[in-house]
Amino acid sequence: MTESMSSQTAETADKTIGEFVAEDYRTAEVFEKYGIDFCCGGNVALSAICQRQGIDPAVLLREIEAAKREPMERSQNFAAWELPFLADYIVAVHHAYIKDNAGQIALYARKVAEVHGGRHAEVKEIAAIFEKVAADLATHLREEEEIFFPAVKRAAAAKKAGERPELRDIDAIRGDLVRLRREHEEVGDAIHTIRHLARDFALPGDACNTYAVTYQKLKEFEDDLHKHVHLENNILFLKAERDLIPSAL
Ligand SMILES: [Fe+2]
Ligand SMILES: [Fe+2]
Questions:
Q1: Which of 1, 41, 47, 125 has the fewest other C-beta atoms within 10 Å?
Q2: Residue of 88, 196, 51 lying closest to 60 (CA atoms)
Q3: Given this model, what pLDDT does residue 76 score?
Q4: What is the CATH number that goes with domain 2-76?
């Protein structure tokens, strides 16, 4: 019993964080709990992360197993979804979230910076960084919705029909994969900086309601962005690369 458990531990600890989450999204909560980045920095083996953060891999694997036993709707099995469906889901859920919330959060952050910037210099920096994140994401989402996702959908449809995808779609996908991944990293870094400046969103004693709502919304924004980037980097992009781009080219 002990032997089989330890051999299982050795085997699974070699998997990357991104692989765990791509296979079963319920494991994301465990990584979130331990502050392990599963989207932008998800390409690291579990054993390496544990060593770096002083976590016992056996404990983490036990929690991962427990998370996987929780009921899962069929609808959450993102890795099994076809590319066009996944792209539509991302736009409907995560792009819509950004469009609905980024402007308001930027407004709140600016207000907090004006009122509290004198005593808490970091809120001025947070407002400036978030404003840039919102502007950069607007361009990024447009690129995905108008260029990248349509090319992925056309290529996937062609492949399903037993035809060769158009070369211009393949070129667009290949070029965008580099650009979009880089932009994910930049936005991920900026959001990480905001969390750091906000000291993990701990409120100071003199925080007003707007301050509290701003930090709560920033945290929610970060959480949504992590899920969003995870679905793109670890599932959609890898699948597009594997299924749509001819390896000989
Ligand atoms: Fe996106
Ligand atoms: Fe994206």
A1: 1
A2: 51
A3: 66
A4: 1.10.3910
